[in-house]
């Protein structure tokens, strides 16, 4: 909370914020008070901004067609890039996470990921650009188990509690009431479409708050990362995702999944898609309000909006 307030220009002390939270929302305060701290006994070292960057995916909403991927700088703990997609995809992760982070902040000495295939394009370009790093003597990337991807793993409890779990509760409730048919590809497409949009709103708020909050004994991520990485490279050295995907397929003789859709895209023309989107937007012009209701345990507006989206989509296909 203090991080969020700081990110919007409000300076408030932790004691003051804690006192107010105890008064206005006792359940949240009690959950927070009882929550066990995640103390990691494994020593971790990152010498400077640009030493290590950690990439990881979150699939708590994967059954509803939502996957998050974030990139975190090891030294500052700043979330330097993030993306939300229906299904994890090499091209999207490269373009919106790895490429975005490097273009905006500079070249990291080492990329750390788990053994997932969705990071192959990122590792491919990291190795190709390895001579542009500040310290080229380090291995350009390191693949470990998810539990050892330390910096980024500490972000996910915040994302789960503030984004994924409220949305998941709302959707599971609809499944329990048998108002959603997860065997229908059109329904799956609509669920993924709307939930991805709301998840991205929530993830954006978490990122904004996290980067502005003070980490005890370390400082504020935004301030620690203010100078960026020591090694800066030209954007021209980072082709867009389609170009890199073609290079990767030619070099390795293997094919990548270029588009990942949850369910089946039901629209036969772009005109039909635009009509459906406009129809939905006329009824729900500000979907951030739907997310606000969900995170405050009021699921009905989001559930009604989802059913409306399904009906609108069926009308135009």
Describe it for me?
- The protein is of the alpha/beta class and 317 residues long.
- A five-stranded mixed beta sheet has the order 3-2-1-4-5, sandwiched between helices.
- The protein is globular, with a radius of gyration of 21 Å.
- The protein has 13 helices and five strands.
- α2 crosses α3 (26-34), α8 (185-212) packs across α13 and α12 packs antiparallel against α13.
- A hairpin with an 8-residue loop joins β1 and β2.
- It has two domains: 2-34, no CATH class; 52-252, Ribonuclease H-like superfamily/Ribonuclease H (Nucleotidyltransferase, domain 5), CATH 3.30.420.10.
- The protein has helices spanning 2-7, 14-24, 26-34, 90-105, 120-128, 150-153, 156-176, 185-212, 221-224, 241-252, 270-283, 288-295, 300-316, and strands at residues 52-58, 67-73, 79-85, 110-113, 141-143.
Would you give the CATH topology of the largest domain? Answer: Nucleotidyltransferase, domain 5
Strand order within the widest beta sheet: 3-2-1-4-5
Output mean pLDDT. Answer: 91
Quickly count the domains.
2
The amount of beta strand, in percent, is: 5-15%
Poorly predicted runs are none
N→C terminal distance? 43 Å
Q: Any idea what the CATH architecture of the largest domain is? A: 2-Layer Sandwich
Number of DSSP-assigned strands: 5
Radius of gyration over alpha carbons?
21 Å
| Superfamily (CATH H level) name of the largest domain | Ribonuclease H-like superfamily/Ribonuclease H
What series of H and E elements makes up the topology?
HHHEEEHEHEHHHHHHHH
Task: Report the sheet with the most strands, covering strand number, pairing sense and barrel closure.
Answer: 5 strands, mixed
């Amino acid at each position: 909370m203090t991080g969020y307030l700081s990110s919007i220009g409000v300076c408030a002390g932790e004691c003051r914020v804690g006192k107010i939270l105890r008064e206005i929302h006792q359940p949240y305060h009690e959950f927070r008070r009882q929550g066990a701290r995640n103390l990691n006994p494994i020593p971790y070292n990152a010498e400077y901004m640009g030493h290590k960057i950690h990439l990881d995916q979150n699939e708590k909403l994967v059954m509803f067609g939502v996957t998050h991927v974030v990139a975190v700088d090891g030294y500052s703990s700043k979330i330097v890039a993030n993306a939300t997609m229906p299904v994890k995809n090499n091209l999207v992760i490269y373009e919106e996470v790895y490429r975005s982070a490097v273009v905006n902040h500079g070249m990291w000495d080492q990329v750390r990921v788990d053994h997932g295939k969705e990071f192959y394009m990122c590792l491919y370009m990291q190795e190709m650009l390895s001579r542009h790093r500040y310290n080229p003597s380090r291995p350009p990337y390191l693949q470990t188990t998810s539990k050892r991807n330390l910096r980024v793993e500490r972000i996910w409890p915040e994302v789960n509690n503030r984004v994924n779990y409220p949305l998941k509760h709302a959707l599971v409730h609809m499944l329990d009431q048998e108002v959603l048919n997860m065997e229908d590809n059109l329904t799956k497409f609509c669920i993924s479409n709307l939930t991805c949009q709301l998840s991205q709103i929530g993830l954006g708020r978490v990122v904004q708050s996290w980067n502005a909050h003070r980490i005890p004994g370390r400082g504020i991520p935004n301030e620690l990362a203010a100078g960026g990485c020591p090694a800066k490279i030209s954007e021209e050295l980072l082709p867009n995702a389609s170009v890199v995907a073609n290079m990767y397929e030619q070099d390795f003789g293997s094919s990548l999944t270029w588009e990942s859709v949850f369910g089946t895209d039901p629209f036969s023309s772009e005109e039909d898609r635009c009509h459906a989107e406009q129809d939905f937007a006329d009824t729900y012009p500000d979907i951030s309000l739907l997310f606000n209701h969900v995170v405050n345990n009021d699921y009905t507006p989001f559930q009604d909006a989802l059913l409306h989206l399904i009906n609108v989509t069926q009308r135009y296909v």
